[in-house]
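User: Working on a comparison across species. This one is Class I SAM-dependent methyltransferase from Streptomyces californicus. Can you predict its structure so I can line it up against the others?
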Amino acid sequence: MSETSVTRFYDELADGYHLIYSDWDASMRRQGNALHALIGDDRGEVLDCSCGIGTQAIGLAMRGHRVTGTDLSPRAAARAGREAERRNLGLRVAAADMRQLPFGGGRFDVAVCADNSLPHLLTEHDVRAALTEMRRVLRPDGLLLVSTRPYDELLRDRPASTPPQVHQAGDRSDDGGRSVTFQLWHWHEDGEHYDLEHFQLLPEGGEWRVRTRRTTYWALSQDRLTRLAAEAGFSDVQWRLPQETGFFQPLLVARADA
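Assistant: Here's the predicted structure for Class I SAM-dependent methyltransferase from Streptomyces californicus:
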């Protein structure tokens, strides 16, 4: 899967990304609160290097953190900035590849890479490059937070799909009511990579309009991602589970080596 293909996937999803949540604002608050509990009250400089349309970045800004958001998708990053502005929150945004972050070294206290973004990188070389960049822009002893799907479980079963989810669009006048989303997963022969087809059904003129988008992921096991984080210059690497943190995905939590 090329960088262009991943960018296109999220550029096309940016306008309707909030529709995959039953209540996007509630999700922002919930995820921001969970990450804040791990970061603490110091409210330093936070980089969300896969900010999308701002779900975690805006949630953290709501808790008073000084957040910069970057994303491979220019449309997603731009929307994150607009959504933060609508809520009277400060959020600096830019389009950037997490393997080449446009910041000087030691600028941030916290680096966040959430919502299964890192597994879009399909080789150890690229994952290590992204983690090394996160380490570079962190101050010594800076905090790293990375969330992925629960791949240790998924690698045992290799599911072919996700259940359909029906969402009420909320109070946005342009949403048109409910939406339905589901995914089909096509596993590669190596048993670790999979192509994902994302289906989004939206009401339009009394009919359902279907949008389909495709991308590829690498089902990174926790042991492998732990090793790659250590190789990139992180220590005290731990995995924190949703029942412990209140965040919706498992979280790798680590510190930048001094």
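For your comparison, note: Residues 170-175 have pLDDT under 50 and may be disordered.

User: Helpful, thanks.
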